[in-house]
Structure formats: structure tokens, C-alpha cells
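ok here's Alpha,alpha-trehalose phosphorylase, seq below lol
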Amino acid sequence: MIEQSAFTVEPWCLRECNLQLDLLAQAESLFALSNGHIGWRGNLDEGEPHALPGSYLNGVYELRPLPYAEAGYGYPESGQTVINVTNGKLIRLLVDDEPFDPRYGQLRAHERELDFRTGLLLRKAEWVSPAGQAIRLTSTRLVSLSQRAVAAICYEVEAVDDPARIVVQSELVANEQLPDPNGDPRVAAALKDPLIPEAHGAYAATADLVHQTQRSGLRVAAAMDHTVEGPEGTRTTSESFPNLGRVTVTTVLHPGQRLRLIKFVAYGWSGERSLPALRDQVQAALTAANHTGWHGLCAEQRDYLSDFWSRADVEVDGDTKIQQAVRFSLFHVLQAGARAEQRAIPAKGLTGPGYDGHCFWDTETFVLPVLSYTVPSAAAHALRWRHSTMPKAAARARQLGLHGVAFPWRTIHGEECSSYWPAGTAAFHINADIADAVIRYVAATGDTDFEAGVGMELLVETARLWCSLGHHDAQGRFRIDGVTGPDEYSAVVDNNVYTNLMAQQNLDAAAALVEKHPDRARELGVNAEESARWRDAARAMTIPFDDLLGIHPQAEGFTRHQEWDFAATSPDQYPLLLHFPYFDLYRKQVVKQADLVLAMHLRGDAFTAAQKARNFAYYERLTVRDSSLSACTQAVVAAEVGHTELAYDYLTEAALMDLKDLENNTRDGLHIASLAGSWLALVAGLGGMRHYRGVLSFAPRLPAGLRKLSFSIYLQNQRLYVDIGQADARYTVSDSRPLRILHHGTPGVIFPHQPLVRPIPPPPHALTDPQQPIGREPLRRRRRRTQE
Ligand code: BGC
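and the structure came out like this:
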């Protein structure tokens, strides 16, 4: 876990005041810069020391075989792994022949700051070489949000006491040596030397490298150019080799003199374009960046972010740590999705190789709800990417003997890459999650073109899947058997409530669109009989209920299983998946992550208030949160059923997942869905926002420790500003249309220039705090705050 003191608590930045070598790996993820297309880990400019060097391009992967001891029909044969592409961040510095390396000499000062408003990673250092030569260094790095193919660094060195001979080597390095992976199954399969050199060149202050991947057949180009300002006599040379481009600047600095190097880097990749075309593409991007100049790029970055924050900022008054964490979260969620432009948003964004760089349901269920109400164009892009993979999902469905589409559980390029089918292919709920994201995006934006086009195809083909995956039993009930829900400690179960409710929504929404767009329906080959079958299946959907316990079992038979022996499980045996066989987890009542509880958030309209309270208490006792995708959902439902302080605890856990490295794997990349989850915990949790069937509702209530919570959401291009205090909530709209909402169940209209102010009712009668499994209680925000 990262100690409190490692970073300062500030509302608009993440600052590390000393270089902590034992936190290098985590800091590389936390300080990662990305625009959704390019990702640079926060490695030190000089390259070493490093924990995990990482430069990624969204969609660039290599294939690797998936070996099986016992193969079976339909098992995916090939996996996809994100690769570390050409490193354009490297700037090595030699001071009188000695490399600047903080492990040697004396590091007098070292500070890094990620500024959420400027989008810049700043670094300041003062170092005395082992020979006693002192230098000052500042570097500022950006991955451009406005120029998608571009990243840049401003690197400045100053001599302090005596004249210093300075050599700066600015490099592009392909096939960097990577440390061995640590054996955690969730880490990427590191591929050795994945890039085959194709071309290289250097002249003046530029160099470029072009490579191809061996099996996936992708071509990757990287190019760099520099502007150099130094004292007279400063010399610049360049050279290139198959895996290395190098621009070297040499000078002698007298005390107070500076060498300033601005490095522009451009990346491009393609599975189709020729070598000359790709080389031209990166050269063009480089020329444009050069034309904009360093200051221009910084100004564009600031403008982009100021627009973002004006739409998406969440203000938390009374808890600066959560304030910082939610802005950190939103910044990284934006980075992951901003310019992905019809590519996936991976579970780790482009911050590390964790989960092989794969995209899961994390995107549609956790990330897109945030983007749909704040940066809807990014949500649309992500859904268009899913849509572009439909032919592969259709082929997969056919292979499985099903109709419609079966989207992959994890993938980069669209093919199923999960070799563990009980928690992969069997997690069919991803199809309904994609449908849910389409429904939400359309409700949030009113984008009817999208609805009738991409959206309708996604809904129709996923509805077809459900109809072929489920069946009507002798009593006429529609059953979906043999699937895995969100909780991966149960697998291949019958009638998982979450899956069935999400499928029900999917089927109903598809049938409604068929009625709304009959011409499109004909084009997609849907007739009245087919959509009637969808309606029938939805109406007859099996939703198991345990009458004895008065709760919903998360799947049929679940509540009959033996309970996990939590008392006999020691804290170091979590996550359970690394210490116990799946077969044992599967036959016990133990929940990895919110499953039934997630159903109560996303399909809250299908439960009564009393059912929600009982279900929540039941599943709290069993949920161990071995996935980062749980705390935010528990926060949302805890808030709804009246456990406001517990919601605050879970919000804290979701928001600090990476800042505190709670899952002990932040080194492999950030948990983008949990970061998005901190917005969900605030907006859907403490703000109580729901948007079911076109009805927007809020049920705000703050924990005692917060004075105020404010946020904006965009609804069909109209900005709604919600400002919640302890006693009342104030709703304001930005344009001339009135907006109808529900506040704690009571209808209200927000008129332009006339905020709607409503009192916050007291929480439902005193509830006893639910129990969590022993040792798995969330971080207690209420108690800890007094110690801060
Ligand atoms: C969770 C999945 C999630 C994946 C990637 C797993 O631990 O159980 O629900 O999609 O991580 O974040």
C-alpha cells in the first residue's frame, strides 16, 4: 500500500516531493500520460532507474498462442497482447561523462507534479554527480490531447557551481529490454523483441524508425525532431540504427547557463498502410507539432482541459483527499478515452501492460456512464469501436452455435482472447452491458442518428443472442442457463439475476427500436414475429427469489451453497483467486465483486426498496472485493438503501484504489473502471442519480464529513448543474429548456434562470450497519479522517 506521505494532498495535482525508488513502479502508472491513442508511462526521462518502461499505441498488439493441456471445441487459439512500442521518452543526460542516475551521487531535490488543469507532467531535480558536479534539471512532458499523434518534452539543464560538460542523448528505442513479469496471472505476457525493423533514418535533429510486428502484421512508425537552445558552441548530431534513433547535443555550461531541448515525437501505426505512407504520416504530424511549437502545444492542452473541466468537474467540499482523488480519476478516465477514436478503452487505459492491454465490460459498464454524461463524443467512439468488431462477434456466435453476436470477454482487436472460458466466454452478460451502454448513451444525448444506425444494430444482434442462448421451460418461463455473471467466484450458473435483468432490458429495448424505426428493422431482417419473441422472452424472464431468506439469490441455487469460511481465511490469502482453487470458490457462497448488488444499481427499477435493503445486507456479508470493480457499486447501493457513511467508505476505496495501491498491482497500470467508479460513487451514490427509461432522478444525501458536493451532467446538450449541501439540493439548467426530474421520488421542474431547490429528507429509519467478511471491511473514511 502507498503511504499517505508519498504524495501531497492538493485539489488540482498529484505531487511527489521526493523520488522514492520503492514506489517507482506505481508512480510510473500514476504519472502516465495518454490521449487514448498514445500512452507513455511516467518513466524517468533518462530511462533508468525504471520499474517497467512502457510506451503504448492503442490497438497495437502482437498475437501469441494460447496453449491448452486439454483443448476443447471453441477455445480461442490465439491471444492478443499489448506491446511496448518504440520509446520516444528517452533523454539520457551525461554530466562530465557521468550519467545522471539518482542511484549514484547525491540527489539534492526531486519533485514531480501531474497537473490536472494543464495536462503537463513537471519534474524538477537537483543532482550532484559522484565527481561533485552539481546540475539543475527541469523537464515538462505532454501527450497531446489536441494533436493525437504527438507527444513532446521540454528538457532543461543548468550548471550550478562549476562549468559542466553536458551531453544529452535524445532517443527513440525499439525492443527495449523489459523486466521479467512477476508471475501474477493478471499481468501481460511480455513478448521479447516484438518489433521487426523495417526502416530507419536520421538527419539534422531528427530521426525515425519503422517496425512491423511479426504475427499481427502491424506497422509502427515513430519519429522525433528537436529544437535546441544552448550557449555558443552547442553541437547537435544525429544517427540511426535498426532499433535506435539518436540525436546528441553537446555543450559546456557555465554556472547559470542553460541547455534547453524541445523534443517533438510523432507516432503512427497501421495494418494496411505502406511503409512510405506511414513514414510520411508521422513526418507530417511532426511538422504540424513543430509548427504549433512547444508553447502552442501547451496552450492547446490547457484549452482542451479547461473545456473538459468546465463540463466534468466534481467539487467535493470538506474532504480534500477525495477532491484530489476524483479529479485524478477523471483526468485519467479522460486520458483513456479522449482520442481513442474508434479503438477500445482498455481496462488499464494506456498506463501499463496489465491484463495484456485488453478491453473488458469495464468500458461499457463503468467508464461509459461517466463519458456519456460528460464527454459523449468519446462514449460514441467507444461504442463505434464495439460496432466495428461485430463481424467477429457474429462469427464467434456461429462458432458457439448461437445467433446474433457474442462479443468477446477480453480483446484488443475483437476476437475472444480469454483462454479460461468459465470466466470468459461464459460471461455473456457483456453483450447486455454493451446494449445498456447504447441505451444510456442515447438517453443522455438524444443522438437519433446513432440510435437508428450503430445503436440499433448492436441492440438487435445482442437481442438475437439472448433469444438463442435462453429457452422457455415447460412453465413458459424464459431461462438463461450455464452463464457466468459479474461475480467471478461463481461460474456457469443458471439464471444469474444480473444477466437476466440486463438481457431483459436488452430484449425490450431492441423490440422498442424495431417499432420506432421499422425501415431499419426491415434492413436488419427483423420481422414482427421476431420482435414479438424478444418481448415474450423479456416478459417471461426468470428472476429467482429465495422465499425463505426473503432475498434474491444471485443465481439459482446460490443461497443453498455452503458459506465460505471467512474466519479461517487470513488477510494474506486475498485475493482468494491466487490462493484457492476455483472449484472450491465456485461451490461456496463467496462473492468476488458486486453482482446482485450491481443489478440493483443498473436495474434498480426491478427491485422494491425493501428488497434492495435486504439484498444489500445479505451480499455485504459475502463480498470480499477481490476486484476493483466492486467498491464503487457497493457505494452506490449503500447510499440508496440509507448507509450514507458506508457509501463514503466505499467511495474512498474506489477513489484511492491506485493512489494508495489498494490491490497491490497499480504497477501494472491504473484501474480505469474503478477510477470512473469514483465518479459513479459520488454522482450515482451520494447524488443518487438514476436515469431509467428516460426519467432522470436524484436522491442526494451527504455523509456528515462533507459540506458540499457539486457536479454537472449533460443531458441532450443541456447542462444540468447539481449542488448538494447537507440540508438541500439545488438544480440549475443552462439553456432555455425546462427539465423535469425526480428529487427523492418527488417530481420537479427546473426552469431556466430559476434553480429548483429541494430539502433533503432524513435517511430511512436507523439502519444497523451491515457486516462485511471479517478482515474485508472497507477503509473507514469517517474514523481515519480525524487522524489526517
Ligand atoms: C474482474 C472483471 C474485470 C477484470 C478487468 C477482473 O478481476 O473480475 O470483472 O472485467 O478484472 O478489470
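fwiw The mean pLDDT is 96. kinda neat tbh
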